[in-house]
Specification:
mainly alpha; 3 strands
Length: 171
């Protein structure tokens, strides 16, 4: 039931990386953690040596701090799209009726749908992130690549083929 929030996070992060940082979407890979969430790999060489402060700026942009109105609107539109999908489902109506009361519809949607990121993972270059084919310590599930079109975890075999294709492209 909460996977839709992981989908929002992937779309928002991808949007910010493309719109603000000019990263080509082929260089963005999402990895299912093996539990409830995902990790995103940005395979852009110019970002590999970012200082921790620059990494924190990326999170600030995603969290709508110091971003342009057009980027804020783009992020809101992603969140609103998923809100519209969710509100068509029965459990979502109960969710929306129970929690949505903080302010305007825009404020409520951003409050509940704006991704929550583990800042320590993102802002520190020394923090480990989930890599494909590692096992989640609690669930025992294998971390796999997330399909860009379906936003669902790929099978092990599909993940292997995806990574082979990436290596052929020589990102």
């Amino acid at each position: 039931k909460c996977w839709i929030f992981a989908e929002v996070a992937m779309e928002v992060l991808e949007y910010v990386m493309v719109e603000i940082y000019g990263i080509h979407e082929d260089k963005i890979v999402h990895v299912f953690s093996g539990n409830k969430g995902c990790h995103t790999w940005i395979l852009e060489e110019k970002l590999f040596d970012l200082k921790d402060s620059a990494r924190k700026t990326i999170i600030d942009n995603v969290m709508l701090k110091n971003t342009s109105k057009s980027v804020q609107d783009g992020i809101y539109n992603i969140c609103k799209k998923h809100y519209d999908i969710l509100k068509t489902k029965d459990y979502a109506l109960r969710f929306c009726a129970t929690f949505f009361h903080a302010g305007s519809l825009r404020e409520d949607i951003l409050h509940y749908f704006l991704p929550k990121f583990d800042e320590d993972v993102t802002k520190s270059s020394t923090h480990l992130t989930k890599i494909p084919f590692s096992m989640h310590p609690t669930t025992g599930k294998i971390a796999t690549i997330i399909d860009k079109k379906t936003k669902k975890p790929m099978s092990f075999e599909e993940s292997v083929q995806y990574l082979r294709n990436l290596s052929v492209k020589k990102l």
